[in-house]
Model the fold of this input.
Amino acid sequence: MLATPALALDDLPDPLTLNDFIQFDQAQVKLGQLLFYDKILSGNQNIACATCHHHDFNSADGVSLGIGEGGTGLGIKRTGGTGADQIEERVPRNAPALWNLGHRDIQFMFHDGRVEVSDDFGNGFRTPAWIFLPEGLNSAMAAQALFPITSEIEMAGQPYENAIGGAAYDAPHYVWPLVADRVRGIDAYVPMFIDAFDDVSNAEDITIVHIANAIAAFEGTEFRNFDSPFDKYLSGDETALSEPQKRGMELFYGKIGCSDCHAGPLLSNQSFMALGLPTFGPGLTPLNDPIPRDVGRMAVSDDMEDAYRFRVPFLRNVALTAPYGHNGAMPTLEAMVRHHFNPRQSNTNWQTEMAQLPPVPWLASGDFALRENTAENDRILSKIDIELPPATDAEIADIVAFLNALTGETALDRPMGRPDTVPSDLPV
Done:
């Protein structure tokens, strides 16, 4: 049997460079760091963007399905709150990591791509806000940052709890002026906005666009990282990868064909694929759908062909951001890789203890109700887009080794990190 020929560098993506990324003003980056960690953006002032995208968890939250507004703590130790503040449901999808989202070619945000770069509405993006999305956003990251603050479960709170929660119940664009007004009212923020934005000369000039653009500037700078062994290999250093990592790379780009979807410098072609992952949690049920579930991209495109499809994730620093899948169903990188080779069997064999869920006793009876809906699970299994050739245990181990070679050498050493305090004086 002939050996598979070694890959040439021409078969691989081009190395990432700084020029591949949006460059942001440093004053906006610093301002964005504070806003990212400031709970003033949430309806009940008890959760920040960073709660689900924390430095301690490498820009994610370390759990399958997060606990949003009303909870306390971080990661698997986060609780569901107490008394009137206790949560009514978990966040229905896994918190995606933020690595390299400042790349100039990013087209979609969220697992279902409901924020998309587009000229359809004259504001640069297609989003759930349609024509009501404000103009002047600097990136898809900025457009994305506008929506967690409009979610009752994530950051806004319930309609009866605060004005932001009440506005969120009506429409996303009703929330944004209220959030901007809060920020304008914090004296310490005003000179920072004046310094960061040429069109801001006083508090009244601060808008939600400035807030979102500052958060995006921070995310796009802080989580930019491309100094992995794979990057060095792409730049010509053939010693940068170990032998198992090289074998895994050749399988990834060759025989197994992982790169058919995980293509390009970010290792995603930004398409949407159905993987047949087991379903659990509250589901993200589309409006007027009588069945609790998560149909993925179909809820955005309104196309039956997109049922149960989710965005192909970017893989740089993927080893740092378990668990995996749109709902965090797979606890380890190896489990996620193995799922790709036999999704139906993996789905069947999946055990509820594989879900990394912070304990919430009053939700426990419903956490896996979707899993018990056999008709829905049959529909999920009937819509699987991938079929890979078989692989041995040794080959799977090599692929996992290659995925670990995508971890940046400085990934755990971020330039800014978490601030000690924020201008609102709310706890960080």
Observations:
- The radius of gyration is 22 Å.
- The chain is about 30% helix and 5% strand.
- The first strand starts at residue 108 and ends at 109.
- The first helix runs from residue 26 to 37.
